[in-house]
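Appendix B. Chain record.
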Amino acid sequence: MRRRSSRGPVPPVPLRGPKDTVLITPGATVRIALQFDKPADPDTPYMYHCHLLYHEDSGMMDQFVVVDPGQRAGTPPRYEPAGPGADGHAHAHS
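Structure tokens predicted for this chain:
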């Protein structure tokens, strides 16, 4: 992705160019541009999220799909853990 704007129309030189993460300070708005050059797949979502876990838990994590013009989003496969503890979380029960 490329950062399109940040606190003004042109980002500072170190923030230009391809990135996979973007620092967004409190109250800031950042516009990004993404280019998808692979075939669109309406059933396979991409994810974006905040790297602060308490933000992820508060909803700053979501998914989107890329579709061709005129195409509708499909139904992504649902992840189902294989059994107790299969989701990678260990839970203690008393």
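Further analysis of this model is presented in Appendix C.
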